Amino acid sequence: MAPPTRPAASAWRAWAGPAAFVAAMAAYCIGRSVAIDGDLHPWTNTLVGLVVLAGATGAGFDRRELGVEGRDAGRGLAFGAATVVVAAIGMLLVAVLPATRDVFADDRAVVSTGAMLRRTLVVIPLGTALLEEVVFRGVLLAWLARRMTIWRAAWWSSVLFGLWHIPPTLHSADGTGAIGDAARGGSGTALVVVGAVVAMTGAGLALCWLRIRSRSLVAPFVAHWGINATAFAVAWTVGR
User: Fold this and answer.
1) Could you report the per-residue pLDDT of 68-104, keeping only the tens digit for each?
2) Which of left, alpha, beta for 134 (phi over 0: left; psi -120 to 50: alpha)?
């Protein structure tokens, strides 16, 4: 007797949604890198993030699953702010020591004061942190957690977060910053991309930990924004 096919079909249907979501986000990531002007990134990413969040809510995910429950926001803010403070202290120590301050040497941070403020207060929170946290620590983590343990879901979400950074890393490899210098040096573009994927996978796991422990998407959003903004501000200061 032939084995029943219903379980396999049911499993396929269970994974069709997440697979389609990942494919759509990958297409957007690639398309954004080649077709959307950099000045528009904060606004297009914000719009996509809000659409994704609204779509997930409409599809039946509750606020607690997505990490947007209002009563957990304060806890999330505390977790995120504490993470930023610890990271900022570490970055400042690296920046003030002559032996390590070159870590922050980056031509991309040699900009005007206005451009630095736009980068730290607009581009990073709206053009980077909001969309990535909604997608990877919000919707995708919740979707995967319905099908596996929360920490396994965090692992797969973080791997996909690492892969998400391939297009922007390839773009940066053509520039004049630290990534571009490494790509033109002995490492080569391929190793730079692999290093970025591994590093961002690790960062994704840390952000997932914040999201799970705090029960709020506010925690990874604040940490993501604060750490990236502090790093850019320190690099801007070192380059002056």
Assistant:
1) 999 999 999 999 999 999 999 999 999 999 888 888 8
2) alpha
10 Å CB burial of residue 141 (0-12, 13-18, 19+) is buried
Q: Hey, what's the torsion of the CAs at 112, 117, 123, 128, to 10 degrees? A: 110
- Do the beta carbons of residue 193 and residue 173 sit within 8 Å? yes
| Distance in angstroms (rounded) separating the CA atoms of residues 208 and 193 | 22
Least confident of 2-6, 113-117, 158-162, 171-175: 2-6
Chain mean position to CA 132: 4
pTM of the prediction?
A: 0.87
Question: What residues contact 166, with CB distance under 8 A and at least 6 apart?
Answer: 193, 196, 197
Contact 193, 44 (CB under 8 A): no
- The torsion angles phi and psi of 169, rounded to 5 degrees, stand at -70, -40
Query: What is the C-alpha to C-alpha distance for residues 52 and 135, in angstroms, rounded to an integer?
Result: 7
Rounded to whole angstroms, how far apart are CA atoms 18 and 140? 7
**CB 162, CB 198: distance < 8 Å:** yes
Helix (H) or strand (E) holding 20: helix 6-35
Residue with the two structure tokens 């659409």: 51
Angle CA 202–53–133, to nearest 5: 20
